[in-house]
UniProtKB/TrEMBL annotation:
Domain of life: Bacteria
InterPro entries: Hypoxan-DNA_Glyclase, Uracil-DNA_glycosylase-like, Uracil-DNA_glycosylase-like_sf
Organism expressing this protein natively: Arsukibacterium tuosuense
Protein name: G/U mismatch-specific uracil-DNA glycosylase
SMART domains in alphabetical order: UDG, UreE_C
Highest classification ranks of the organism: Bacteria, Pseudomonadati, Pseudomonadota, Gammaproteobacteria, Chromatiales
Domain Uracil-DNA glycosylase-like: 9-164
Length: 170
């Protein structure tokens, strides 16, 4: 039987306006207790480009850069079973509590999904089953994972630039 994995805690300030959701952290991220810890994951270089911060900042520094721009970070799946890191290997998934999260972070107006699995899990496990605010903008973006190699970094960055108008000062 596969082990039950528990995701990471949300990274969010009460003034967050944008929530970025992955599916479930990969093995490296769970091991290091850091979002997007795999060195070839494009998430941090993409966010550094969009938010104009140094991608080589320490992990706490990168989180601070997100929160300073009112960006929250979490995952759709709170618990699951999985061997390895691939989204396709996820089973027995249980979603995080978005009803409570959105009540505590009631300024969020948009959710961006990092990849197809995050979007599919949210649609299947959350929409219509948990309370979400009306008018919430939902954006599906290509995965920043190195496993999603069909898009080059520049192409992923171009898609992720859709977040820029949702951020303060833009």
């Amino acid at each position: 039987m596969l082990p039950l994995l528990s995701g990471l805690a949300a990274v969010a300030q009460p003034d967050a306006r944008l929530l970025i959701l992955g599916s479930m952290p990969g093995a490296k991220s769970l091991q290091q207790q850091q979002y997007y810890a795999h060195p070839r994951n494009a998430f941090w270089p993409i966010m550094a480009s969009i938010l104009n911060f140094d991608p080589t900042l320490s992990y706490p520094g990168r989180l601070q850069a997100l929160m300073a721009k009112q960006v929250a970070l979490w995952d759709v799946i709170g618990y699951c079973q999985r061997q390895g890191s691939l989204d396709s290997a996820i089973s027995a998934e249980q979603p995080n509590d978005f009803t409570r999260f959105m009540q505590q972070h009631n300024k969020i107006t948009a959710i961006a999904f990092n990849g197809g699995k995050a979007w599919q899990s949210f649609r299947r496990q959350v929409i219509g089953k948990q309370h979400l605010p009306d008018g919430l903008q939902l954006l599906q973006l290509p995965s920043t994972s190195p496993a999603h190699a069909s898009l080059r970094f520049a192409d992923k960055l171009q898609h992720w630039q859709k977040l820029a108008p949702l951020l303060p000062g833009n």
